[in-house]
Design goal:
single chain, about 110 residues, alpha+beta, OB fold (Dihydrolipoamide Acetyltransferase, E2P), 5-stranded mixed β-barrel, 6 strands, about 40% strand, DUF5666 domain-containing protein
Length: about 110
């Protein structure tokens, strides 16, 4: 009977250990772009305000970015992009982007 209890404890320990080892892998499986990058579809572009909205491919949340004029010229609504950004004072500031599928049918890197 004591052997069965020890086996159960061993299995429980391995199961818990497995959760700790696998949890980071599962959590980062969709976040393989690295820090400060998002991938998604451009929802809106506002050249007057210098902003754009992106539907994040991983979370399906709308993210709003402050973006400079040269980057704004590269994107259109419905483009699929990867955007590199920095967070400054609760704002997402676009630093660079790659257009992977443009509504104009052109694919280029920014």
């Amino acid at each position: 009977m004591k052997q069965i209890t020890n086996i159960k404890k061993g299995i429980s320990f391995l199961a818990i250990l497995g959760l700790f080892v696998l949890a980071p892998v599962v959590a980062s499986a969709c976040s393989n772009l690295g820090p400060e990058k998002h991938m998604g579809v451009v929802l809106s572009v506002d050249p007057i305000k210098g902003t754009m909205a992106l539907m994040d491919a991983e979370t399906q949340e709308t993210l709003h970015f402050v973006i400079n004029e040269s980057l704004l010229k590269k994107i259109h609504v419905n483009d699929r992009i990867i955007i590199r950004f920095q967070e400054e004072q609760d704002q997402l500031i676009a630093k660079d982007l790659e257009v992977h599928a443009s509504k104009k049918g052109v694919s280029f890197h920014g």
